[in-house]
Amino acid sequence: MQEIIQQYSETIRNAAEKQTALRIRGGGSKDFYGATLSGGILDTKLYSGIVEYEPSELVMTARAGTPLAEIEAAIKERGQMLPFEPPHFGAATLGGCIAAGLSGPRRASAGAARDFALGVRMMDGRGNDLRFGGRVMKNVAGYDVSRLMTGSLGTLGLILEVSLKVLPLPSAETTLRFDVPEDKAIEMLNQWAGKPLPISASAYADGKLSVRLSGAKAAVEAISRKLGGERVADEQAEYFWNGIREQTDPFFTGAMPLWRLSIKSTTPPLKFPGSQLIEWGGSLRWLKSNADAKTIRDAAAAAGGHATLFRANDKTAGVFHPLSPALLKIHQRLKKNFDPAGIFNRGRMYPEL
Question: For residue 338, how far is the Cα from the chain centroid?
Fold first, then answer.
């Protein structure tokens, strides 16, 4: 494996010297996400395999090119899971999972991808092999580069290895479904959020609110009876939540632009043409609409959040919410420090990076 590391380093140093762009790519499952795809491919699949896994310590370390499915299968054998329930969207790798920083239905209750990144080994734009963080929870000093790399879309450097915290699988899960209007669904979700309920996922679309309960069997059963609603068969529920996680649910089909709005959970129903699906207790609104980009982003900002053009054929409006001048300067300084020649994933997040 050290030969591969040396090969990466030489490739990066050569690209930096010639000012040649490099496109970091694993399984290619997130190629649709972000803006420009440019540069010669730097393939992370070459560097694969689980480095260390300590089930008793709830910590797993693997190389960037390791298939996400392989990691999930290995920890599932020991009754554990990746708590942030990352989507695959195809042949996903661990490096791509962390670089994209996307989380699935369980995110609102368990936390985001960056919350479980304990340490990272990476290569910067100078070809230096660097390590940050560690393999235990209490091992963070100075910059928390593990979290910084999560969601950076490969613009700061090449992820080589990642150490993640894992959690035990819940002993029981039940999905309930309610027929309610959108405003009532948002109200219910926010009321439940203030109570000690084992809600691990929620989704609302087309007049139906689905809620997943996870935890000890007795607690799940008791809360299920208390909340009411229609119980969904286990196999059907698993299919449904996987469809939300992997965006194979019928809602996500079609060529219409798909927006991802991260806003305050208490925000009333957003009036846009098209259709919507609400997740994360009301704080994530998926919007399929041909509405003007500025209108959508202004509404998201007014609701205390931001809007991302998640999938679209035309991305001229920009994928990510525009940065304020102050934030843009911070991003540019980080880019300069980690990737001084600007070779990694140019323009993938913003034209200025």
Answer: 22
What pTM does this model have?
A: 0.93
Helix (H, G, I), strand (E, B) or coil at 209: strand
Round to whole Å and give the CA distance between 189 and 150. 28
Are 151 and 101 in contact, with CB atoms under 8 Å apart? yes
Clarify whether residues 240 and 298 are in a common domain.
yes
Compute φ and ψ for 41, nearest 5 degrees.
Answer: -75, 130
Distance CA 121, CA 349 (A): 22
Place of tokens 């979700």: 189
Residue 228 within any structural domain of the chain: yes
Do residues 220 and 213 touch, judged by C-beta distance below 8 A?
Answer: yes
- Is the distance from CB of 349 to CB of 155 less than 8 angstroms? yes
Contact predicate 218/258, CB 8 Å:
no
- Per the CB < 8 A criterion, the answer to whether 275 and 285 are in contact is no
Collapsing DSSP states into helix, strand and coil, what is residue 351?
A: coil
Q: What are phi and psi of 260, to 5 degrees?
A: -120, 110
Task: Provide the residue type at 51 as one letter.
Answer: V
**114: nearest Cα among 73, 149, 65:** 149
Return the ∠ at Cα 251 (arms to 249 and 253), rounded to 5°: 85
Domain of residue 212: give its range: 172-254+256-311
Residue range 198-248, pLDDT digits in tens: 999 999 999 999 999 999 999 999 999 999 999 999 999 999 999 999 999
- pLDDT, tens digit, 9 for 90 and up, residues 134-185: 765 444 445 589 999 999 999 999 999 999 999 999 999 999 999 999 999 9
Q: Where are the beta strands (DSSP E) in the chain?
A: 22-25, 40-43, 50-54, 59-63, 80-81, 117-123, 129-133, 158-165, 167-168, 172-179, 199-205, 208-215, 230-232, 258-262, 275-279, 284-288, 306-311
Of 161, 101, 158, the C-alpha closest to 339 is 158
Q: Could you give the C-alpha distances from 30 to 27, 101, 153, in angstroms and in order?
A: 8, 11, 9
CATH of the domain at 85: 3.30.465.10
